[in-house]
Design goal:
alpha/beta, Rossmann fold, binds S-adenosylmethionine, 333 residues, 53% helix
């Protein structure tokens, strides 16, 4: 789908002064409607997740995540003259990628955007706590509400797979980029990686929820209400996760959108085989139960296996088998 200039201007004119408010408690009727409306599903699902998102995904704004974000950026973009002036993040969630990239010196000022009002609210709150010069608004990546040639850099993490028309979003990215500006999207699921991740998640959920039915292990299980809520969320997840990517296909989409110097990079094979069961296990067990030792095991295990992926497996395993896909490209000067 291509958005005409007239449609685009109409959209800009229709943007209200005040962004819509978060709706963290969707009714059953809203959830039903969202099954047939992917963008409503994105808003309900991510508004519901927003306040607990950082905790669920172990997102922080300290050295650990600053280094993680910067490594993802460098791995696909390579060495760049830094900092970029003004950066935009699409599908910012709680701000994990851009806020940590700014702390790493990648960009001087930022604008965070997301379809979910709840996420924008949390991202702006996080930016304020960190004292970063960031503004934000509720925005659909397919119709970005900023003028042409506004940004030096556009970034996103784990967002492209939620957008119905990825090529249209990348066309919009190129429109709002200044000539010579760069985009970097990381953390997208690969088509093959998604197959084994889903299977591992499903198997871990089944085993853990069944084993913790044993009365002696009852306090290793979240309340039924919490598990049911997770299952409802997982059902919505199927509606919000629209794509998986083969790296070569994603390169073609970016080129079709008009980008030059396009390059896709993949990461995490062994690390993903550990990461998905770990995350699913954490969703079943009450948060206080696992403690610091578990967190250390999960993080160090992931780091060690990532090292094996980056230094060994990437030489012998084809890139499309790795779980995470990242893509970069440039707007022609
Ligand atoms: C998986 S979350 C990732 C959040 C964050 N980037 C991170 O890595 O932690 C995907 C985010 O994309 C947002 N999103 C989904 N569809 C979108 C769209 N069409 N335009 C903008 N944001 C969208 C969701 O609301 C959600 O916050």
């Amino acid at each position: 789908m291509t958005v005409s200039p007239q449609e685009h201007d109409r959209h800009l004119a229709a943007v209200p002064d005040l962004d819509p408010a978060p709706n963290p408690h969707a009714t059953q009727a809203e959830v039903e409607a969202a099954r047939h409306d992917t963008k409503l599903a994105q808003v309900l699902y991510h508004d519901w997740e927003a306040e607990s998102y950082d905790e669920k995904w172990h997102i922080s704004y300290d050295e650990r995540c600053i280094e993680y974000a910067r490594d993802r950026f460098d791995a696909v973009a390579g060495p760049q003259p830094l900092p970029y002036g003004r950066a935009l993040e699409l599908g910012c969630g709680t701000g994990f990628f851009l806020l940590n990239l700014m702390q790493a010196g990648v960009a001087a000022t930022g604008s965070v955007t997301d379809l979910s009002p709840g996420m924008v609210k949390v991202a702006l709150r996080n930016a304020e706590h960190l004292g970063l010069p960031v503004d934000g608004r509720v925005a659909d990546a397919e119709i970005i509400p900023y003028e042409d040639e506004t940004f030096d850099l556009v970034v996103g993490h784990a967002v492209l797979h939620h957008i119905p028309d990825v090529e249209q979003a990348l066309r919009e990215v190129l429109r709002v980029l200044k000539p010579g500006g760069r985009f970097v999207f990381a953390g997208e699921p690969s088509t093959i990686g998604n197959l084994y991740a889903r299977w591992l998640g499903w198997a871990t959920w089944k085993i853990t929820t069944n084993v913790t039915r044993i009365p002696a292990l009852a306090d290793w299980r979240r309340t039924q209400e919490e598990l049911d809520e997770s299952s409802r969320a997982a059902a919505l997840e199927a509606v919000v996760d629209l794509h998986t990517f083969d790296p070569a296909d994603l390169e073609k989409i970016a080129e079709a959108a008009g980008a030059i110097a396009v390059h896709a990079h993949t990461e995490e094979f062994a690390a993903a085989l550990l990461g998905w069961p770990v995350r699913t296990f954490e969703a079943v067990v009450p948060p206080g139960k696992l403690g610091f030792g578990w967190a250390k095991f999960a993080f160090n295990g992931w780091k060690t296996l990532s090292w094996v992926d980056d230094h060994l497996l990437n030489r012998i395993v084809p890139r499309r088998f790795f779980y995470n896909v990242a893509i970069t490209g440039v707007k022609q000067s």
